[in-house]
Amino acid sequence: MIAPVTIGLIIFYFYPFFRVIRDSFHNIGSFDRDLGFVGIDNYSAMFKDQEMWLALGNTFKYVVIIVPMSLLFALLIAVLLNAKVKGLSVFRVIYFLPAITMSVAVSMVWRWIYNGDYGVINGVLNALGMTPHLWLSDKSTALFCICTVAIWTNVGYYMIILLAGIQGISKGYYEAAEIDGATGIQKFFKITLPLLTPTIFYVVIMLVISTFQIFGEIYMMIDQKAVAMKYTQSIVMHFYRSAFSYSKKGYASAVAVLLFVIIMTLTVFQMKMQKKWVNYE
Predict the structure, then answer these.
(1) Model pLDDT for residues 194-228, shown as the tens digit of each residue
(2) How many domains does the chain have?
């Protein structure tokens, strides 16, 4: 009965995983031609590659910005949508829409918004008599533009998860707190937040993993020949360009293995640290 799922996992998950590890020790050229075993040469070249280190640094910047901001906004909206307000279902659908919209479509819309010639933002700046800006071409703003899109996309999905966690908290805690004269803020920090930590922990894990794999927004919004690409490309974007633009698939496989090790290390670290702040009672 489990054979179809098992076969699918082997073909689409386990085989590619071990194939990437194997390819990282080979010189794989265009059309997947194996040009021979090269040992750790791909890893040596990767660690000497300044572009790889810059891409890795950009990726950590994305994580530092996107993860906490996405969590903060998702938690804020979840708390607000848990209140009794008119049109609650409509608001939930509106906030969740970005999560089910194709990332390519979202990126194209935001690319139009940020467009330096006829974008919405520059149109507003022009109307206010302010100087327009080349948002996606300027290396000082391009990364933050991508972060904005990623946060906007993430919030709806994780808001639903946090909202489910909030609604799973027994109302008895809140009723007892009201009897004791607790304010809304006190109830949030003394009841909601502590009892929501298991859900927050799950959200943080998923946000870290997804942010380390950020790719679509960069690919669709930043021209690969633009100066800003160097300062916005993530480690996954570097992997993609190495494999498919430069036909260095052995080197790209080494980059993929490095990304796996980083994500696995951070996940294990988070699993260890959860004992200090996650409350399962």
Answers:
(1) 999 999 999 999 999 999 999 999 999 998 888 89
(2) 1
